[in-house]
Amino acid sequence: MVSKPASGDRVADATAFLRERGVLARCVSWGNQTLLVTQPDPSSSQIAELKETGIVERVAVSHSRAPLASREFQNASSVVEVGEARFGAEKLVIVTGPCSVEGLEQLLEVARHAKKLGASMLRGGVFKPRTSPYDFQGLGELGLRYLAEAREDTGLPVVTEVLEPEKVDLVAKYSDMLQVGARNAQNFALLRSVGRSGKPVLLKRGMMMTIEEWLQAAEYVLLEGNRNVVLCERGIRTYEKATRNTLDLASVPVLKRVTHLPVVVDPSHATGYRELIAPMSKAAIAAGADGLMIETHPTPETALSDAQQQLNLGEFEDLMKELEAVAKAVGRTMR
Ligand code: PEP
Ligand code: MN
After folding, report:
1. What local confidence, expressed as pLDDT, does residue 6 receive?
2. How far is the CA of 241 from the centre of ligand 2 (A)?
3. Which atom number of ligand 1 is nearest to the Cα of residue 99?
4. pTM over 0.70
5. Does 303 sit in the ligand 1 pocket, CB within 6 Å?
6. Which residues contact 319 (CB under 8 A, 6 or more apart)?
7. Where are the alpha helices (DSSP H) in the chain?
8. Hey, what long-range contacts does 69-73 have (CB within 8 A, 24 or more apart)?
């Protein structure tokens, strides 16, 4: 893998040099650098030869299956900015909102409350990936308009899930960050498409995915030159039935070691039960997560989806207060 703040000529020269040696190079823009990501890896003598030509500035050799996501390539932790929310900064990013946008009033109530309590982002599903086709599928574009209205009202940036490549432009028009859900975490066409959108991406862990596979999914987005990827641990499927999924909190410190990308935890989908959200939120922050995604609803018992795992507004308020001490203990802030 080679990089250089590049003119077109240099890219062409380096690409030709590699091609003559049977190595394909893909050009990726990475901030103000230009990268050539190679396949297969050049040999050490080819690398030495290439360095001698002076065409490239730096050669980074990564042993990772997801090199752009790896700390070998970029040691400094990435900070992903979405409006005023900064994933990976000292202030924890709390993303909250209903599982599904059900109406403007519901959304505004949650959003204003979230804003008042110091949450950084609003969530709300409008295209819902439901296991049963008979369940509520979301409000679609109308819901996107409500999200945009709630952002206008509160100043909170919004994140919402996109289910298919064909809808990426539409969802990107209304939202500040695109969510790729657990069920789509290895939908490679969708990953490429959100990568090309230029919007920050919240990539949930697929329920059957290893950490390495998850990072390879992130790599699809990064390879499109989109560096703004945030990983969201939301639990994996195991034989345990007492919780909806098994929250793999060890993934947080593992990811922190191997990748520069920010990591957040979603204790709502990970556990499936309201009473487990507070303890697992605290554990996630203690484990080093850069933030949380928590489902909230004015009246969870009437919710059209995930009724059991959404906090009501009072419960969310209590949790935000309780998190302050944990945040402080690990050198983070809530405000
Ligand atoms: C969601 O956050 O709305 C959602 C559907 O979560 P997941 O993809 O993690 O199941
Ligand atoms: Mn949900």
Report:
1. 61
2. 18
3. 3
4. yes
5. no
6. 277, 278, 281, 294, 311
7. 8-20, 44-53, 104-117, 141-154, 168-174, 188-197, 211-222, 251-258, 267-271, 274-286, 313-329
8. 69/215, 69/218, 69/219, 69/222, 69/229, 69/259, 69/260, 69/261, 70/215, 70/258, 70/259, 70/260, 71/257, 71/258, 71/259, 71/260, 73/1
Residue 79 has pLDDT above 60, yes or no: yes
CA–centroid distance, 70 to ligand 2, in Å, is 30
Whole-number Å distance, alpha carbon 283 to ligand 2 midpoint, is 20
Whether the predicted pLDDT of 90 surpasses 70 = yes
Cβ of 125 less than 6 Å from ligand 1 = yes
Amino acid identity of residue 241, one-letter, is K
* Position 196 pLDDT exceeds 80: yes
Q: Choose one of 205, 264, 266, 293 to mutate for the ligand 1 pocket test, by most ligand atoms within 8 angstroms of C-beta.
A: 266
Tokens of 174: 């209304």
